[in-house]
Amino acid sequence: MSACLGLALASAWISTPVTAWAQDQAPGADPPPALQPPLATLTPNPKPARFNVGEVGPIYATGVLSGFAQLQSNHLPADHRWRFDINNGQVFLNKPDGLIQFFLQFGYYSLPALGTPYLPAGDATPAFYTPIPQGYLKIAPNENFSVMVGKLPTVIGAETTFTYQNMNVERGLLWNQENAVNRGVQVNYAQGPLSLAFSVNDGFYSGHLSWITGSASYAFDKSNTLAFVGGGNTSHTGVSSTRTPLFQNNQQIYNLIYTHTEGPWVLQPYLQYTHVPRLEQFGARDSASTYGAALLVSYDFGSGDVPAAVRTPGFKLAGRLEYINSTGSIASGAPNLLYGPGSAAWSLTVTPTYQYQNYFVRGELSYVGASDTTPGAAFGADGNKGSQVRGLIELGVLF
């Protein structure tokens, strides 16, 4: 493990990524179970199904069903101009209290992301994390300390894995450098405004427990939180597949994430740095890095702080602006981390969302522009187009 990674992780752990729903509940409604995928702009079912299992205690069942349609320009040969798909059909079971807790997620899903071909749910589910993408046991002897073991959600980045969890339907360019689900163990500790955790896991689902991730988050007040995240592979592993990109799985990655909430606004700027060392045994004769920045924004038109003339319960508008640059060149033998060694890209995404009770509809318009690309590594049938526009709509229900 490099001195840089070791120093970063010695001083910072990761705050637990699976928390209570970050939404206000209807007056008088029972609070939803705590161990659930967090949501950004959608509001969960305030009264999930509850099953009392003797001495085990209550077990909750929730889920999501959604479909979407997409139209895009400059698609790659492996993709299509038009797409229709059932992109989520999932059920969540969890026991959120007591000494022994658990979370289990199962079903089918797709993981749409900017600048990459869409893989339908029927193909994405077995290619990525199987029909049980997340599931873990949590031992919590008190409210400050816990240990989780199993298939864990990543602690890297500001965006989470599945469409319904995020402000935008598609994940962003920075997310494409991050892992999503890993298998391992995570230790969490929280005291007052400080949340810490530490994880040993298999990174990009490689099957090798050679990754260490860690971070610390500090809530200055109810409106402002700052988090530092770091992680990386302590070894060199040669696994390469759809879910385990060879070079990213051998990288180090760091995030600095700030979150501000005030009235109807949520603002979340963050910075990201990744570094892949020289890996001659895997064909990379030189090292390469990426530098990225993003701003995630959402505005809740249903908030009581919105002027009455424009207040619209259930309607939210989200946006994302990001830029990422990679280093290296073909001549030096650097790995391709984007659209060829030394390439750069930026994106703009706008996502209006409307939710009525448990039903939701989201539209999305996105643009990706790439520069300094390697011939054949960008967009279009020949891989030489420098931009891509997508429009899509997602409809679903949270139950």
Short description:
The protein has 2 helices and 17 strands. The protein has 399 residues and is mostly beta strands.
Number of domains: 1
Helix amount, in percent? under 10%
| The CATH topology | Porin
Number of strands: 17
**Number of distinct helices:** 2
What is the terminal-to-terminal distance? 44 Å
Structural class: mainly beta
Largest sheet: 16 strands, antiparallel, barrel
Element order: H for helix, E for strand = HEEEEHEEEEEEEEEEEEE
Based on Cα principal axes, name the global outline: globular
Poorly predicted runs are: 1-32
Query: Mean pLDDT, as a whole number?
Result: 91
What fraction of residues sit in β-strands? over 45%
Strand order within the widest sheet? Answer: 2-3-4-5-6-7-8-9-10-11-12-13-14-15-16-17
CATH-wise, what's the superfamily?
Answer: Porin
Named at the architecture level, the CATH assignment is Beta Barrel
Radius of gyration using CA atoms only: 21 Å
